[in-house]
Amino acid sequence: MTARRVVATGTFDILHPGHVYYLTESRKLGDELWVIVARDENVKHKPRPILPEAQRLAMVSALRPVDHAILGDHTDMFCPIDDIRPAVITIGFNQYFDEEKLKGQLAERNLPAEVVRIGKYEDGDLASSRMIVQRIVEARGSGDQRIG
């Protein structure tokens, strides 16, 4: 029997509870969770990652829900998906994907994966890298050396 593979993608810069939630919920949708970590050069929709891609990959690989983690392709985001052949592709609540367009692109490549958007993590106010960076800047800028 073939394992039901799930693919989750993201930058995963400054890991936080929202990332863990996204990956945990993604893992529940199949037997294997494959995570494609964005390459530094391909992050164009937001500021460049603070952590280099190799470190982000190592951290994601160490997370309990993750069975396999790889770096994305340099030029074609669908190349790893072609290789993995997932049953499901998950996208985070705030990822900039047009779900219908993504479904069309998958169909064009004969990749019949279901696309599932994972909901927002609601158990804390520091569930995004942007909010964490903002909190650090505010704390350090005010002379307060405590983050929490």
Q: How many β-strand stretches?
A: 5
CATH architecture: 3-Layer(aba) Sandwich
Shape: globular
Q: SSE string, helix = H, strand = E?
A: EHEHEHEHEH
Give unreliable regions as ranges.
Answer: none
Organism: Methanoregula boonei (strain DSM 21154 / JCM 14090 / 6A8)
Protein name: FAD synthase
Family: Belongs to the archaeal FAD synthase family.
Pfam family, one: CTP_transf_like
Molecular structure report:
- The protein has about 150 residues and is α/β, with parallel strands linked by helices.
- The chain has a single domain (about 5-120), classed as HUPs (Rossmann fold).
- It has five helices and five strands, in the order βαβαβαβαβα.
- It has helices spanning about 15-25, 55-60, 80-85, 100-110, 130-140, and strands at about 5-10, 30-35, 70, 90, 115.
- It has a five-stranded parallel sheet with strand order 3-2-1-4-5, with helices on both faces.
- Strand 2 (about 30-35), helix 2 and strand 3 (about 70) form a beta-alpha-beta unit.
- The N and C termini lie far apart (about 50 Å).
Summarize the topology.
Elements lengths: L4 E6 L6 H11 L4 E6 L15 H9 L6 E4 L7 H6 L3 E4 L7 H10 L5 E4 L11 H13 L7
Parallel strand pairs: 1-2, 1-4, 2-3, 4-5
Keywords:
single chain, about 150 residues, alpha/beta, Rossmann fold, 5 strands, about 15% strand, globular
Structure at a glance:
By secondary structure, the protein is of the alpha/beta class. Helix content is 33%, strand content 16%.
